[in-house]
């Protein structure tokens, strides 16, 4: 599990460690850690390193690292871009042979521009976790001036990124981000993660706060969470999932959701739907049984439209929602919920569906993303899994649980039907007894890894992902680090 802590908690933890240490000790450790990473990344003697220095402690870390790198014979230029800078760090860098230029306002001069265009490594020490989202006015064009071939290494976070990870804005794009002691939300949430690159957490001895705000399951977590049957289990004790999905229009959605639930290893799947998807399922997934019956959880809505709903599907779905059983609502099923249920509920919208759901419920949609998912989760007292390149699983605030953020899928997974497959896996895990938070995040992880396993490095079709789920679960249970 990777855990990220709020900016306020990180600051408090750093302050208390600073009080325990001699002055400058934490910055010295950070600079040494950063230097080690850069030395590992430098390709050749004489590589040109440009260090962008802001006015905060982050710039101080970068200046001391610049001095260490110059001492190690790198060719280092520091560009001071803030109103001020860490004077001890600047003195250290100058005396170790670092060249220094300034770009504090307006246009950069030609020396700065050519250094950026020719750099092999750029260290971004402009803003840290105290930074506001967006780049200062004079640095707006900075990302365009950095050589495409330069290895961009951000200190703590790519400057311009929202430290809380909620707002997307102009920022540096890093190949790697070196942060200290612990991850922060900016490193894991969808609004900013794309700018972070490889995340490298360097321990500088700060004690971790008690409660994270964001968590990420790793492959090693699958073994502890995935429901594995024992000798006393039978198909009923392992969990029966009821699926209300597909209709005359989207027959395939039923096949994808049911196939994924079956390959995820559920005890049994009951399918409820009209003749077209039912006939297709009888031939494609003979393991499924048909018609209403006792279940441990329901997956409702993939490929389903409320306007033209099959009457039996509608009444079974409504009864499921009124029951005390766990329910996952996907796609058209999201139209069924208006108020909190008294049972575990997982909603799996993509961004478009989340916006529509919020509008229907009268929830302000401004900003979208994780903040909107949180408002919907609070309104409905349900867990909201917001699909995307980074999938976030957001429980209601008063549950007091960290949200989960998963980034396990190749972009090839952005393909029709992939969401139906995910809904089937979520349903199987809810029927297996997992909470909506565990079921949603674990399903997102396995779904993403299965997409990669189905055709490593290349395009996938949703049905191949559905068929791959069982093999991927086996692999993760037995060789999680592979
Ligand atoms: N073979 C099948 O039977 C398939 C059935 N499917 C079903 O088709 C139905 C319609 O699903 P759609 O999602 O296409 O249509 P929707 O009409 O629900 O959503 C698409 C709309 O949302 C907008 N949007 C905004 N952000 C988006 C995002 N991140 N991802 C996707 N759309 C976004 C799009 O621009 C578009 O206007 C669902 O019930 C789904 O389960 C699909 O899964 C495709 C395959
Ligand atoms: N760029 C991306 N990289 C990785 N995964 C993605 C990306 N875009 C979408 N996905 C994943 O693909 C799936 C698409 O689901 P959805 O939008 O519901 O499609 P559909 O309705 O066609 O099934 C989701 O699991 C989502 O997280």
Quick tags:
alpha/beta; binds ligand NAX; 482 residues; UDP-N-acetylmuramoyl-L-alanine:D-glutamate ligase; Rossmann fold; seven-stranded parallel beta sheet; 2 domains; binds adenosine-5'-diphosphate; 16 helices
Ligand inventory: ligand NAX, adenosine-5'-diphosphate
Biggest sheet details:
11 strands, mixed
CATH topology of the largest domain: UDP-N-acetylmuramoyl-L-alanine:D-glutamate ligase
Q: What's the overall average pLDDT, rounded?
A: 96
Shape: elongated
Q: Which architecture name of the largest domain does CATH use?
A: 3-Layer(aba) Sandwich
pLDDT < 50 runs, ≥5 residues: none
Tell me the fraction of residues in β-strands, as a range: 15-25%
How many domains? 2
Arrangement of strands in the largest sheet: 1-9-18-17-16-15-14-13-10-11-12
Summed up:
This protein has 482 residues and is an alpha/beta fold. Helix content is 38%, strand content 16%.
Please give a structural write-up.
α2 (25-41) packs across α3 and α9 crosses α14 (418-431). Helix content is 38%, strand content 16%. With 482 residues, the protein is an alpha/beta fold. Adenosine-5'-diphosphate is lined by residues 350, 387-389, 391, 409, 411, 413-414, 416-420, 422, 447.
